[in-house]
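Appendix C reproduces, verbatim, an entry submitted by the partner laboratory led by Prof. M.T., so that reviewers can inspect both the input and the predicted structure.
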Amino acid sequence: MSYVTETVSNLIHQTAFFNLTWGNYLMILVACLFLYLAIKHGFEPLLLVPIAFGMLLVNIYPDIMLRVEDSANGVGGLLHYFYLLDEWSILPSLIFMGVGAMTDFGPLIANPKSFLMGAAAQLGIYVAYFLAIFLGFNGKAAAAISIIGGADGPTSIFLAGKLGQTALMGPIAVAAYSYMSLVPIIQPPIMKAFTTEKERKIKMEQLRPVSKLEKILFPIVITIVVCLILPTTAPLVGMLMLGNLFRESGVVKQLTETASNALMYIVVILLGTSVGASTSAEAFLNMNTLKIVVLGLMAFCFGTFGGVMLGKLMCKLSGGKINPLIGSAGVSAVPMAARVSQKVGAEADPTNFLLMHAMGPNVAGVIGTAVAAGTFMAIFGV
């Protein structure tokens, strides 16, 4: 009888109930909230479902992220190995290749002025950088945090790893992906506050046709120019343009399909679950995390503001031919930000179609965020 009692007692004490803290339970609730938003309301489920589930797993069973050096038998936790691919910048770079393979750069080629709006939308990055310094973060940490303003999760992870800010990678990545998912909620109030109804109703002229030669040359030229100026951007810009060259060359359809479908989704699973698993209660529930969440939101709002305001300036300079709403798409959440520009424009005039025009600044924003990351790496000699 004592053997049975002892066995039952051991089994009971091996359950998670006896090992979790109040912080773990709080993070489990947050994970369930993310799952609810993703499944019920469709807030970027491809991102939020794996992130939330990784968050759920690590707060129930922390050893799933056990580091090899902390393990008694020299074997780390399952998601620790996934997370190493984030730290080594492998998964973010592969995500960029997939994005390039899925994205049509034609609207940006047809309207090169879009580069300006993509650049203006990086305002939030630099505002957040100086605010982070003011709040006590060191230069490298401030740079890693500020990239959240580009609404670009892979670049945030990439830069945090390159700058050695792995301790902050979890909160930075979760903040970046959360704000990417909340683009349809965060951006419209800012867009409407700084534009008039007349401006929102502006219909833009149809974009010129872009030749196949232009589409093939674009990724090659951009890679040469950007990487010669900022070689540190090669992993991101290079992979983005390689994926796009797969798409536009027309001779490697199998590679295009693999990069934009099977490989992309595999990488999203690995990256999402590992990012979510970096948010254990011990690592996440602290004052620095709160600061990162607030700074990320401010960065994202200032980025949207910067894009819209340059859009307004270009609207006036063009004699009312440019709808300033497309400037908000300069944050690099592709294609969500472009869809939001379309949605807000359609609310003002249901016959207005801005999606293709907004894709120009949207794609430019992806390049702009990668350039901003490369600039920080160059500044800190990485």
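The chain has a mean pLDDT of 90. Additional entries are available on request from the coordinating office.
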